[in-house]
Amino acid sequence: MRTETAKKLSEMTSQFYALVAPSFSATRDAPWDGWQRVMAACSVAPEEPIRVLDLACGNLRFERFLSDQQVMADVYAYDNCDDLVRESRAERLSGVTVRYKRLDVAQVINSKKDLSNLLEAPPCDLCACFGFMHHLPLPEHREQVLQALVSRAAAGGIIAVSFWKLSNSDRLLRKARQTTEAEAPRHGLTGLGPGDYLLGWQDRADVLRFCHDFTEPEIDALAAAVRPLAEEVSRFSADGKTGDLNRYLILRKA
Length: 254
Known about the structure:
Blueprint: H1 3-26, H2 34-42, E1 50-55, H3 61-68, E2 73-79, H4 82-87, E3 96-102, H5 105-110, H6 115-118, E4 124-129, H7 139-152, E5 153-164, H8 170-186, E6 196-201, E7 204-212, H9 216-225, E8 230-238, E9 246-253
């Protein structure tokens, strides 16, 4: 995929969230099942607060999960859609302090800036990125995000990343193929590779987001890219009605 195409896809995705934030947030309230296993890897002591970096925090759904689980946490949260954060019900949080900062990760990477330097957080016990990697069109950009997360983890800290497996849903895959076939030529998008799709939202025809369906070798390559700074702890599937719509990669910093 050409860099120009990747930039256009990132811009389309940012615009997507800016336009549909309220309705999107309304469908993103329940916690993901996989988060229980993420927190188990962290070995959280109930009486001790943890530091968390949440990259692409969305509507603070993970923070509500931490609060509901009675995990005390100082969270450094980043996203490029202020409206999604405003849609959150932060007043529900108990024991969780959120320090939010607007950051357009794709724009930072496309402009060749060092993402690590812009994540203003102390060494964290958990550096998480959920529901975002599939929006990055280029493998090297996904690698940079994972490297940035590793850089902000404390020694022995956990890095947890999810990868959307839309191909595990016949309905989602069929919709993604139909949308991509119809919209990619219309928007002059060429060079889309295997697993690269466009998806709309509900009944709106004016918004599109880029989504990548990950293969296991792609996740292998990302895990290899951060060795020996971080080693894989586990990898598992979870979430959705079928229990396999996300693939999780859990790393521990050396």
